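sry for the spam today, last one i promise. struct tokens for design, 595 residues
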């Protein structure tokens, strides 16, 4: 008996056997059950996802002796003929080789004849986008108003090449790429039927190489089976397919996170000795780090179509303690280095240099973290200044020498001083500290440190409606306090106004950029603003923020106008003549503001 490949041997014969296209099989099943099946159906999607298979099953459902039904019997004459591709009333046409207008005219002429023994005459046109423009035009009329006993089922991988006049006359169903877990489970079931022992890791490599195509996965599985004997391991699959095992990807990413340059070189050498193509290898590294970033950002399962479920858990474990800014930094660097690896005469060396540059990068810090560290540093300086201010007076006085005015003057002080000789230095012994008394001038020395000034003390009002101070003045004072304690928060309210609300609160209106608005509305910063207002007014104040996005259009127009004026000034004949006459150069250009 002639050997049948797995894709033909285990081709689905019912809607329940189709893998990964439940949204289409359910819709067609409901249409058959309710008797609302369209006369022209277009099935589109990537290769090997089941378009032609669904069209054949749908033909069985329509022409089955117990039909129309969503579950064909597969035992009647019509079902068996369609299964063996010998049905007299089902015409499967290849659009690539029958794409002329004469072929479509032949279909139109034969469509008017009644079917031989089935309820419907069915035309399945595969790769329908290959028809010529004249063939599409010839198909329009019969496609819009076909005979009651004719149905058209189209399949294509490029629906964008089909004229809109054809698309508008068809009911379209889009096939999706099959999830890798569904491909793995399907191949595992077939291996069990074929009594083949293949590990799940090996099936994962095949499923990833298939890229969402069931037919490609089964073709690769056929290749693996014929290339091996006995149990099939991951190493054999890697040797046959030339792909990259997932363990090497995890080892490489861990070496990058650990900044282990020696391990990275060892992994690249090992994969190079196995015969891996360096450009493809680098692309797989990029995809792996992209998946790690998606995992860190809690991306949905649809964003990880080529990652098996057990691998997703391993990725979560690997990036649990790695900041997302670091992963994003590595991925961005890999993308920048992709061109140098792809077009290099020595891609292996280019790949190693790319990873060396990644290891030399300092870890990235988010802007919020940087602002928090700067605020903490400023707060630490203020606390140090406050503690320096609180030192006792005697401790600061003892560090400087104290002059005692009660010491009698030396007899030599009244003698005339000769210009030829230097005056002798006065000799005296300072009395003990406990016996001397501080002069009045020394007692009046302030206790404030020399190079630090304490923050100004603000008096607290008892209510916001204080008659002696307007709300605008109170808000200016609050901004002054905020500038000393929270300068980053003060920058958000640099262009702001405050008014009294009907509920004796503050309505704060401010204009800022999108980032400053987000920063001001963060819960922690809003609490700081609330605490400053409560402390200033001496009572609980209800505040409300009304942000307005800074209009960048006006500033952009001003910059464009400034650049235009600079260009005109540089190209002015007088400027050029002055430059040549004085042999000078332009140092600075200033724009004079209009009065």
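last one done:
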């Amino acid at each position: 008996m002639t050997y049948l490949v797995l894709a033909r041997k285990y081709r689905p014969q019912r809607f329940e056997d189709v893998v990964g296209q439940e949204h289409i099989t359910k819709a067609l099943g409901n249409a058959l059950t309710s008797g609302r099946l369209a006369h022209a159906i277009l099935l589109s999607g990537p290769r090997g996802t089941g378009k032609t298979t669904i069209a054949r099953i749908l033909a069985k459902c329509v022409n089955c002796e117990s039909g129309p039904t969503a579950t064909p019997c597969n035992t009647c004459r019509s079902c068996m003929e369609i299964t063996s591709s010998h049905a007299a009333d089902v015409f499967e046409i290849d659009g690539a080789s029958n794409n002329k207008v004469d072929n479509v005219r032949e279909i139109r002429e034969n469509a008017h004849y009644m079917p031989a023994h089935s309820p419907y005459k069915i035309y399945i046109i595969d790769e329908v986008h290959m028809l010529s423009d004249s063939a599409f035009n010839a198909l329009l009329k019969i496609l819009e108003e076909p005979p009651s006993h004719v149905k058209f089922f189209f399949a294509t991988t490029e629906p964008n090449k089909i004229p809109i006049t054809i698309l508008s006359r068809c009911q379209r169903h889009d096939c999706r790429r099959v999830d890798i877990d569904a491909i793995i489970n399907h191949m595992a079931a077939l291996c069990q039927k074929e009594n083949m022992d293949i590990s799940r890791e090996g099936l994962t490599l095949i499923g990833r190489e298939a890229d969402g195509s069931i037919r490609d996965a089964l073709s690769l599985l056929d290749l693996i089976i014929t290339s091996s004997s006995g149990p099939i391991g991951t190493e054999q699959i890697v040797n046959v397919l030339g792909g990259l095992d997932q363990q090497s990807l995890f080892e490489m990413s861990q070496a990058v996170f650990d900044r282990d340059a020696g391990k990275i070189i060892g992994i690249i050498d090992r994969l190079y000795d196995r015969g891996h193509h360096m450009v493809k290898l680098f692309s797989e590294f990029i995809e792996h780090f992209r998946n790690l970033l998606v995992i860190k950002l809690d991306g949905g399962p649809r964003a990880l179509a080529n990652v098996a479920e057990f691998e997703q858990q391993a990725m979560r474990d690997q990036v649990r303690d790695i900041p997302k800014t670091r992963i994003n930094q590595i991925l961005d660097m890999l993308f920048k280095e992709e061109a140098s690896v792809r077009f290099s005469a020595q891609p292996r060396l280019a790949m190693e240099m790319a990873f060396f540059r990644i290891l030399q990068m300092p870890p990235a810090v988010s802007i919020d973290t940087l602002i928090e560290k700067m605020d903490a540093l400023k707060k630490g300086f203020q606390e140090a200044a406050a503690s320096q201010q609180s030192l006792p007076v005697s401790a600061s006085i003892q560090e400087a020498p104290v002059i005692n005015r009660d010491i009698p003057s030396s007899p030599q002080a009244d003698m005339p001083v000769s210009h030829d000789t230097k005056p002798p230095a006065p000799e005296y012994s300072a009395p003990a500290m406990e016996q001397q008394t501080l002069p009045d001038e020394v007692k009046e020395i302030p206790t404030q440190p020399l190079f630090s000034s304490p923050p100004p003390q603000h008096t607290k009002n008892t209510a916001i409606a204080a008659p002696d101070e307007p709300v605008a003045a109170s808000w200016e004072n609050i901004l002054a306090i905020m500038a000393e304690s929270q300068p980053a928060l003060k920058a958000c309210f640099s262009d702001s106004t405050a008014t009294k609300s009907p509920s004796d609160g503050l309505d704060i209106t401010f204009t800022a950029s999108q980032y400053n608005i987000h920063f001001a509305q963060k819960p922690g910063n809003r609490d700081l603003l609330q605490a400053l207002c409560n402390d200033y007014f001496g009572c609980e104040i209800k505040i409300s923020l009304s942000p307005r996005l800074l209009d960048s259009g006006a500033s952009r127009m001003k910059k464009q106008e400034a650049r235009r004026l600079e260009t005109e000034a540089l190209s002015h004949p007088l400027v050029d003549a002055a430059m040549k006459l004085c042999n000078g150069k332009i140092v600075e250009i200033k724009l004079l503001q209009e009065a």
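Residues 6-174 form a domain with the Rossmann fold fold (CATH 3.40.50.300). ok im logging off now
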